[in-house]
Amino acid sequence: MPKDIAQPTPFTRISTERHEGYIPIGNHAVIGDTSTVGLIAGDGSLDWLCMPQFDGDAIFAELLDRYRGGVCRVALAEPEDGERTISRRYRDRMPILETLHQTPAGAIKVSDAMDLPVDGCLTRGHRVLRLIEVTDGEPEIDITVAPRPNFGTVLPHLRKDENGLWYCDTANGEVLIETDLPLERTCGGTLRLRQKLEPKSFHYLVITYTENECGPMGEGAAWETLERVAHQWEDKLQDFDYDGPYGTYVERSLITLLLLTHADTGAVVAAPTVGLPETIGGIRNYDYRYCWLRDAAFVLNAFLDLGFTAEGTAFFRWLMEASRETAPQLGTFYDIRGRSGPDPEPLTAYEGYRGSGPIIRGNDAMDQLQLDVYGSMLYAAVCYVDGGGTLSDSECQLLQGFARVVRDQWTLPDNGLWEMPGSRRHHTYSKAMCWSALDCYVLLCERGIIEDNPDPFRQEANVIKRTVLEDAWNEERGAFMGAIGGDWLDAAVLLLPRIGIIAADDPRMVSTFQAITDELADGPYYRRYADGVDGLDGTEGTFVVCGFWASDYLARAGRCDDAARQIDGMLEGFNDLGLMAEEYDPVTKQMLGNFPQGFSHAGMIAAAAALRDALAKRDA
């Protein structure tokens, strides 16, 4: 039977060991305000925060440069005698981080959260709350606040006003640092404090980004805001509707997707970070703070399947509005405002995580051709309609345009799901998603939702299906190849049964699954493809979502116990708070790539739901 976990233990001890001066990627927690997020390491370092949006400039980025990135650290001083231990948890189900710091001299509990909008408005700017409670003894606190606006290119001038607030300027606003503790300015735009705290005392540190004038918050208001935020998350999570295996992991994955959602627009970013390496010291260091259309159907289905129809509707509306800019063609990704991504530019101030540079803001994939995104969009539309949504006339016209592009262009080579540079190829997954696009369009026509003659699209879909099932099949390898005419395997081909182009128990698919597992799997984890296939130097870790696709396949093949064992094995790749990165190294047990990764969490939800449905079918 599949495993699940009970409610988390009160606190889980966390390592604070650093490698080459950097905390492990998976050592982080995430907090957010539905516009942006902050990442907090186990040692109390807020070392990633972009303002005012996900794709804004970094204020704190020690995650990418331990010297010039900037940090806000709240911890206890290292004791001369005895041990300092740190443990943490999320408060109940909510993304409110509670960290317990203990030394022989005493202990503190730090509660970290971000303020949430009230009636859709953040009246006081974007705020990070860091609230401190002395729970035992007279501990010695050690605080460092070193903002480095504009991606580390500016050493700020910190100034103090008559209310005791510290300020520094950014390109478009101000950062306010408010606390009841006597921070002192040291060299290089840094505030420090190291002193004993009174027994049973309470303290606060609030970091605010604002583009307007903003006065002090006050300690009482800070604690009141924390409780309000807790009630807001409680109210939001009451909509969670899932009755199946791995419920705790599914809920945490959903909460992660909610944290990656930009509430004002409905957009969902792939990840909130830029430049975290897929290999330490490697060149695969990408900016994922944008909205990838390849993720759309997975994310939308997760929201709708789990009872979050408002978020699903907002995301679908954003998809439709964003795609108008380039319609009837589709881009690879868009920013949270629905615009094409920015031109790539190097962030030269940063050395990169553990020296993994260069770091590039923006993403070269914006100029690629990825035909699979048309299938993702049309499939998302069907999911939305199946979930009770209705399409406007203009949305129907958009979908008509996308279907016609697929009908006319599916024979072209493209860069594929994995955004391979260099010469385009006839990727099997891209062709299959073109089939899915036309199949979904025919379905919408047959239901009378879109007024159009489905016959030409049905006929073309049949041609695509024959092409995939005949030309992508390699008899000698006994598997569907990653590209027609190619000799390499692609883990994305595991999704063919989910798409519906072939049954999971078809002998060709059974053989393909085994071939992909033999060549690309490392235990329960799967690589996307073999080294060198993409033409890039070096290697990368296993791609987390591919392991969930393997479980999805097994569930659809009726192999429920194997599907459950596959997910059980994947649980190693979660951190103590239920968060996953883009990639995972099964040898070093370290997360790689951008963090937390929405695709990984959407894959977890999809795999668990597929197993739920397969178990229900088996037991019926």
Describe the overall structure.
With 620 residues, this protein is of the alpha+beta class. 30% of the residues lie in helices and 20% in strands. It has 13 helices and 28 strands. The strands form seven sheets. A nine-stranded antiparallel sheet has the order 1-7-8-9-10-17-14-13-12, with helices on one face. Strands 2, 3, 4, 5, 6, 11, 15 and 16 form an eight-stranded antiparallel sheet that branches. A hairpin with a 4-residue loop joins β2 (29-32) and β3. The longest helix is centred in the C-terminal third of the chain and has 22 residues, at 598-619. The radius of gyration is 25 Å and the shape is globular. The relative contact order is 0.10. Residues 1-8 have low confidence and may be disordered.
